[in-house]
Amino acid sequence: MPNSRTHDMDGAETGVVQLTAGRACFPNLIYIAYDRASGDAVVIDPGWASETIVDAAKERGLTLRAILVTHGHRDHTEAVETLSAQADLPVWGTRPCLDTLDLPAHRERVLTTDQRLRVGALAITALLTPGHTACSVSYIVGDCLFPGDTLFIEGCGLVATPNGDAGDLFRSCARLKRSVPDAARVFPGHEYARPVGMRFDAVKATNFYLRLETEENFTAFCNRPRRGLKPPMVGTVPDMVARIHDHSVPTQDHSMKQAG
Ligand SMILES: [Fe+2]
Question: Is residue 150 in some structural domain?
C-alpha cells in the first residue's frame, strides 16, 4: 500500500487509520477508527475518497459499521451519501447536519443530546459541541477523541461560518475539558503545525484557546480582526490523491469521565 506506515504499540486497543484527502491546499483528515480485537470500525467525516476508505478497511480486515459526522461542512460530508449507500452504513449526526445530506430515512441516526452509542464492539460517546457550527458534535471512540473542526491540536475552528458562535465554542471547549480523559488521543479534521494524535492533556497544555479561562477573552480572541471569516473553499473539487497513515493508540485509561 503506498504511503502507509504502521506504528504498532503493545496494548493498543483502538486503531486509527488516517486518510489525508481533498484539496492539496487545505486537505481534510478522514478517519477509520476500529476495535483491534473485533475489527469493527466507524468512519469519521468522509469528506472525500469513498473508494479509498472502503479499500483501506478491506485491506486491514475491518468491518465498517457506521459513519459519524461531526458537522455539515461539505469538506467533511461530500462522500457520505456515496459511502453510506455503497456499504449500507447508518449515519450519525445532528438533525441540521443530516438535513444537508440526501440520505434515506432508514440510514439516519439523529443525535439530539449527548449520547453513548454502541456500534458493534465500539463504545462511543457523542458530545454536542456547538460553536464552529451550531450542529457540531465531537465523538469519543474508545480512547480517541474526534472533534472535527471544533478543536485542532493548535487552536479551534472558525466561528463566523453560518450559525457559528464564539460563546458556544467556549462552552463546548469547557465541556471537552471536563469530559475527555487526559490520555485520549486527539484526531481533528485538519492538521496544521503539529501532528494529530497528541494526548489531550498535552493539547490542553499547549492550545492557546483551551488556556483562555473567560468567555470574554475567548470570544475576543476568536473574533480578532486578522482572523479569516470563512472556511477556505468548502465544497470545491478535490485535487489530491488520498494518503493513508496507520496510527496505533496505546491503551491507558479507558474510563470516560461523566459527560458535562
Ligand atoms: Fe468546518
Answer: yes
